[in-house]
Amino acid sequence: MTTLQQIATVLIAGAATVLTRFLPFFAFRHGAPRFIRYLGDVLPGAIFGMLVIYCLKDVDVLAGSHGAPEAIGILVTGGIYLWRRDMLWAILTGTASYMLLVNLVW
Amino acid sequence: MQPTGTKTAAFRQALPLSFPIMVGFIFLGITCGMYASSLGLPWWMPTFMSIAIFGGSAEFVVASMLPGVFDPLTTFAVILVVQARHLFYGLSMLKPFAGMGRKKPYLIYALCDESFSINYGAHVPERIDRGWFMLFVSLLNQASWVLGCTLGGVFGNMIPLDIEGISFAMTALCVVIFLDQWLQEKSHVSSLTGLAASALALVLFGADGFLIPAMLIILAVMAVLRPRLESIYSSDDAPAADGSGAA
Fold it and tell me: Is residue A17 in some structural domain?
């Protein structure tokens, strides 16, 4: 690709991204039908379930560390959150424990 | 309320919550920028991508395409698939973003996984202006990403960088918000469907192609269970009377 073609490619990828972000707002700018409002209410729970799996998609439970650092990191994060009800501390402690595990143990 | 006080309070609420993501974004951005320069791309390309696209996984994919043959149609289709999950974020943010006025276009443009997660899931006290809070979260996150990508692009392979595991901040963020939703929700059907459908799709389709099937399964389950779930999950103040009915 020439530099100009590379710039065009990036802009096209940007347009595709913007499309996925703006489409719901554009399509329903004059109010959403009931089914769409239902989806807006019901989807978030499913989305965060999906995102948790998405974050773990490259973990191989059959090889390497078998996903042990991820499992421990999640337990620490969840445990701290249930104990302190503080999102920031839960994320920081969970991430720190995961980093210690992958760098020092596995 | 004075505008300055409103903004300061919102900023002070946003900064600590964005902080773990900002650190992650800077390091992942450096990685993305270094990857781009390892492909022989110009130093400014990672910065340009971080503004024109602003989506981590999409930028890695686009960087890998740039040394190849110019194929705009394939690029558009691939990125559409990679980014399709944003459609779900938009549907969930229709209400929270309503009435955001001039902040709304930027909030939507910058609606990446992380900013969506914080802006949807964070508890913001009543006294804090939600609009400014969301704007600062989005701005701080994107600024960190742009900074990281730029550093990576400019310094290329000069930085011996191996901070393994920092990207776990996103996993932890999602776990915390999932848990928080779980503790509040009247029904766990949606949360469990999200986990189960995604795990099933991951096993069936593999890491690179599972998101779209997962989204379709989730949509199908929600459509089928609508008669049971609609009243449980409804956030409408009054019963809908617009008569537009089911789509």
Answer: no
Task: Pull the structure tokens for residue B173.
Answer: 């963020």
Question: Residue type for B30, please?
Answer: I
In this structure, what is the dihedral angle of CA atoms B142, B146, B149, B153, given to the nearest 10 degrees? 170
- Identify whether residues B11 and B113 lie together within a single domain: yes
As given in the structure block, the two tokens for residue B43 are 């130093």
Asked if A25's CB is within 8 angstroms of B104's CB, the reply is yes
A20 contact B CB<8A:
yes
Same domain, yes or no, for B139 and B96?
A: yes
Q: Which of residues 65-94 of A touch B (CB under 8 A)?
A: 69-70, 73-74, 77-78, 81-82, 87-88, 90-92, 94
ipTM metric: 0.88
Element (H, E) at A40: helix A34-55
Contacts of B100 (CB under 8 A, 6+ apart): B107, B131, B134
Pick from B146, B120, B170: nearest CA to B45? B146
Last residue of a domain, one of B166, B201, B218: B166
pLDDT digits (tens, 9 = 90+) for A27-52: 999 988 999 889 888 988 998 899 89
- What is the residue range of B228's domain? 185-234
Indicate the burial class of B40 (C-beta count within 10 angstroms; 0-12, 13-18, 19 or more): exposed
User: Tens digit of pLDDT for each residue in A90-99?
Assistant: 988 998 999 9
What is the rounded average pLDDT for all residues in chain A? 91
Q: What is the pLDDT of residues B22-64, one digit of tens each?
A: 988 898 888 888 888 888 899 999 999 999 999 888 898 899 8
- In chain B, which residues have their Cβ closer than 8 Å to the Cβ of A4? none
B132 plus B195 within the same structural domain: no
Ranges in chain B, pLDDT < 50:
238-247
Task: Select the residue of A13, A21, A95 nearest B62 (Cβ to Cβ).
Answer: A13
Mutate to test the interface with A, among B25, B61, B74, B92 (most CBs of A within 10 A): B92
Asked if B115 contacts B97 with a C-beta cutoff of 8 angstroms, the reply is no
